[in-house]
Design brief:
It is built from 10 helices and 15 strands. The two termini are 14 Å apart. The relative contact order is 0.16. Helix 1 packs across helix 9 and helix 7 packs parallel to helix 9. It has 2 domains: 149 residues, no CATH class; 164 residues.
């Protein structure tokens, strides 16, 4: 085993449900049902359940987010003396996905739109400082690339925010159930695309080199890796690989399996497309779903993955999850939340992580 993974294993600690804050939108039956199911399965203490009331739409205005989400969640943490103890915040389907840009925010990298979950990650530092972080553009994630560090406060002044969501309640329940049966077995499927983007392919190759060779399926050809069995992780280009023409990869996913891809808008919605819908390209607008032709994060969950990452809007390649951090961390026994956030460069940005933060494969050889 690479020495780096041995080092990472030495700093792992068994975080528990006591470190989780579960956020439920009382205005949403879906959110209430998900919260009840997760709390029952994980044994979440009642004081660790935060009830808010906000709109159920996928997009929320900045002022509504501040008033109906950030402020009441901060109040929950303060009222119950949990600000330091909580390391992970779990949002639920039925809570808005994204904060809309304000008219004066600026273009592209200067905009103040963001994923709700990525914004909530900075609630810890906002509470400590007594004021909000800068809203325009991404904010550096202090946990990015910290392979050997224990995630704890106050060294890392953020919360790791994941979301329990899928196309429907049955999908979320299945995701939660699979997370409870995760085991360190199966293949890490890593699919490069043609050499028109050496940077992303380099990260994928690094990830493969840091994992045991007998656990990796690496493909650098023009072919897309479909119909793989016993998959515990997938990293690739999704619909940004011009050779991919299938909406679903056709994988057999093991409990605990995770997915990540270099795709801009894969978490644009959790509304389910028609069964006949398929990925296409930007030149065929009539074939788009929810404003884009790209793969959808929720499709990986529908197919059987336990966790997946995505983007509610354009993140730019550098701010997508880096597989060279994500996959080795998850293999070494880090929980799902820490593995994903170690791989994400920026917060207050477009990233979301779907899954139970406590899900873990356990150490290799378990």
């Amino acid at each position: 085993m690479p020495a780096l993974l041995l080092l990472a294993g030495q700093v792992l600690t068994a975080q528990t449900v006591a470190n989780v804050l579960l956020v439920v939108n009382d205005a949403s039956k879906l959110s209430r049902d998900i919260g009840q199911y997760y709390a029952g399965k994980r044994g979440v203490p009642p004081r660790n359940v935060c009830h808010i009331r906000t709109m159920e739409t996928e997009t929320i205005a900045r002022e509504q987010y501040d008033r109906e989400m950030a402020a009441p969640i901060a109040a929950c943490l303060a009222r119950n003396g949990l600000a330091e103890q909580i390391l992970y915040i779990v949002t639920t389907g039925g809570i808005p996905l994204r904060i809309a840009a304000t008219a004066s925010s600026g273009p592209e990298m200067a905009a103040d739109n963001a994923a709700v979950d990525s914004e909530l990650a900075l609630l810890y530092s906002d509470m400590k400082q007594g004021h909000s972080h800068a809203l325009k553009g991404p904010v550096s994630n202090p946990f990015f690339g910290q392979r050997d560090a224990k995630f704890a406060h106050p060294q890392f002044p953020i919360y790791l925010v994941t979301r329990l969501a899928a196309y429907d309640l049955a999908g979320v329940r299945a995701l939660i159930d699979r997370s409870l049966h995760a085991a360190n077995q199966g293949k890490f499927v890593i699919d490069l695309k043609s050499a028109d983007n050496q940077e992303g392919n380099s990260w994928l190759r690094q990830a493969a080199n840091m994992l045991p060779k007998d656990r990796v399926i690496l493909d650098a050809s023009d072919n897309v890796l479909y119909d793989q069995t016993a998959v515990i992780a997938y990293a690739g280009w999704g619909s940004n690989d011009a050779h991919r023409h299938r909406r679903f990869l056709g994988f057999h996913w093991l409990p605990g399996a995770i997915s990540t891809e270099f795709v801009s808008t894969n978490a644009r919605t959790f509304q389910r497309p028609p069964d006949s819908w398929n990925i296409s390209d930007w030149g065929k607008k009539e074939l788009w779903f929810a404003g884009a032709p790209q793969t959808l994060t929720a499709d990986y969950l529908l197919e059987g993955a336990t966790a997946a990452t995505g983007h509610v809007d354009e993140p730019y390649l550098a701010m997508t999850p880096h597989p060279e951090y994500l996959l080795p961390a998850y293999y070494s026994g880090r929980n799902l939340a820490e593995s994903y956030y170690m791989s994400i460069r920026s917060l207050s940005w477009q990233n979301i992580v779907i899954g139970d933060p406590l899900c873990s494969l356990g150490p290799p050889g378990r």
